[in-house]
Every structure is written in C-alpha cells, then in structure tokens.
Amino acid sequence: QAVVDFERLGEHAAAFEGHDVGFCCLGTTRAKAGADGFVRVDRDYVVQAAELARAGGCKHFVLQSSRGANEQSRFLYLRVKGEVENLVQAVGFDHCTILRPAVLLCKRQESRPMEWIAQQFLGAVARLFPTAYSVPVEMVARAMVACVLQPGEEKVKVLENGAIHELGQA
Q1: For the chain, N or C: smaller number of CB within 10 Å?
Q2: What residues are labeled active site?
Q3: Which pLDDT belongs to residue 103?
Q4: What domains are there in the chain, each with its CATH number?
C-alpha cells in the first residue's frame, strides 16, 4: 500500500507504475468538501490518477461512478460524474469499465444522517426490488473484480445498477 498526497499526486508517479489494472472508488461529498473540493476530488484527482496509471502501464481501468452520471446534468454531483467518465475514457486505456451503482448500502464510520435514513428505507425496498434503487458495496467490489477477470471485447463498458448486481452475484 502506498500512501500518496493527492495535492501532489504527480510526485507519486512511482506508486502507479507496473500495474495492469487500476480500480478507482475515490470520492467525497459536497457537504464535506464544498463544491470546489468535491470537483477537485471526484474529477481532478480521479483523472490525474488515471493518467498516472496509464503512463505507468495500466491497461484496464475500473471506475466507480454513479447512477445518472451525465455531463449535461444541472446537478453538480451528476455533472461531475459524467465529466469524469468522459475524461477517464479519453485517457486511452485498452479497457475501461465504468460502474454506475445506485445508492450504496454500507456502514460508514462518519455520520451522514440523511444517507442513513435513505439506506434504511432502501434496504427495506431492496428486499422486494433488489436491483432497483440500491446495491451493497460488497457487491460493487465483486463486480469490479469480475469485470477484470472476464473482460469483454469492448474498449469501454458501462455497467448500470442491475448489471452490477448480476456480475456481483456471479
């Protein structure tokens, strides 16, 4: 494990060398980092890490994005996620897999009251409609690994929430 300073990511290029696959789940919230900080973390750091990974020999980059990602969105979160998807694709990996999960079901160390309420509600809904509105983080992780172990022919593959469930259960 290499600890890097994201404000000086370029100084840590060696940490990105010699890896065939890169997994990126980096992100923050607007509430935690402010609008500018959110953009810096969720777009700028991710793109810079992707560029360093590609320069270091990475052939398959797997990016966790978000359901509804769209660079034309009026909502900052979805717009930034859409922008980063396009920027990472432009880096030129042999394979790029983008996962767009819905609400992530997980236990967090930090307190996010509204997210906790949503998770409680969506956890109950998931019993009836397991792939509709949420996905456990463990399933996302399994899907990320599975897409690398079973790469398709396409250069870019986008997995929506239902496909994440399918691949994560395989």
Answers
A1: N
A2: 77, 81
A3: 85
A4: 9-169 (3.40.50.720)
